[in-house]
Amino acid sequence: MRLQGAIFDMDGTLLNSMGMWYHLGEDFLRSQGFTPRERFWEDVHPETLLDGAAYYKDAYGFSQTPEELAGMLEDRITDFYTNHVTPKPGVEKFLSLLKLEGVEMYIATNTDRPLAEAALRHTGLESCFRGMLTCAEVGSRKHESAEIFFRAMARLRTRQETTVLFEDSLPAIRVAKAAGFRIAGVREAVFPQDQEEIQRLSDYYVRSFEEMYEVNRL
Predict the structure, then answer these.
(1) Which whole-number Å values give the CA distances from 63 to 32, 121, 160, in the listed order?
(2) Helix crossing, 49-60 with 18-31: angle to 10°?
(3) Contact 85/20 with Cβ under 8 angstroms?
(4) CA-CA distance, 161 to 122, in Å (whole number)?
(5) How many alpha carbons lie under 13 Å from residue 177 in its C-beta half-sphere?
(6) How confident is the model at residue 39, as a pLDDT?
(7) Helix axes 66-83, 18-31, angle to 10 degrees
(8) Predicted local confidence at residue 1, as pLDDT
(9) CA dist., res. 44 & res. 167, Å (int)
């Protein structure tokens, strides 16, 4: 059946941004003269930005408040999305081909709207999409609910059987698959341990968008 709609995650799917998130805390600590502790990522990854900032203060003895530290981290994140983020190889050409084929596209992202919009402007990708939904706007995270995907599909006015979801996050893929979506799992090198299960759950596995130029493969 011909593809009519595509819903794209942003970070790690369209953009080379997961490495920034993975190294954000470590890079910040080094910039402030501290050496990150062993298992730093495992300690900080589940936390919110403010919780992570509180951890930095307690663990490393910063003089700033957690709120001040969170603001410093936010400045680094904003600068990255506004000035430095890049698309994954082949993304621009693949999106252009989908657009030429008349496929309607939408973004469903965990990233807050101002950052996501800045990233799309910087990379020149915003004109490819009919719109965007964020998890904050929907009120639930992707690993909790498929609501954001259903809302994006409703805005595209497509059906599940003619819509494909492009996603790199294993928890989000599990939720979307259970909700009946066709999945194009996208390889993200930051999470090699998840790739085997992502391949198993996905209807298509995108090792690289440079390999996805043939639209009719979907």
Answers:
(1) 11, 36, 52
(2) 30
(3) yes
(4) 33
(5) 19
(6) 74
(7) 130
(8) 63
(9) 23
Collect all residues with Cβ–Cβ distance below 8 Å to 150 and sequence separation of at least 6. 179
d(CA 118, CA 196): 33
Q: What is the pTM of this model?
A: 0.90
The tokens for 190 are 């930051």
Residue 109: CB atoms within 10 Å? 25
The Cα 197–Cα 122 span in angstroms is: 33
Question: Looking up tokens 């502790």, which residue turns up?
Answer: 37
DSSP the chain: ----EEEE--BTTTBS-HHHHHHHHHHHHHHTT-PPPTTHHHHHTTS-HHHHHHHHHHHH--SS-HHHHHHHHHHHHHHHHHHT--BPTTHHHHHHHHHHTT-EEEEEESS-HHHHHHHHHHHT-GGG-SEEEEHHHHTS-TTT-SHHHHHHHHHHT--GGGEEEEE--HHHHHHHHHTT-EEEEE--TT-GGGHHHHHHH-SEEES-GGG---GGG-
Gap between the Cα atoms of 4 and 10, Å rounded: 19
pLDDT of residue 218: 52
Intervals of the chain under pLDDT 50 = 215-216
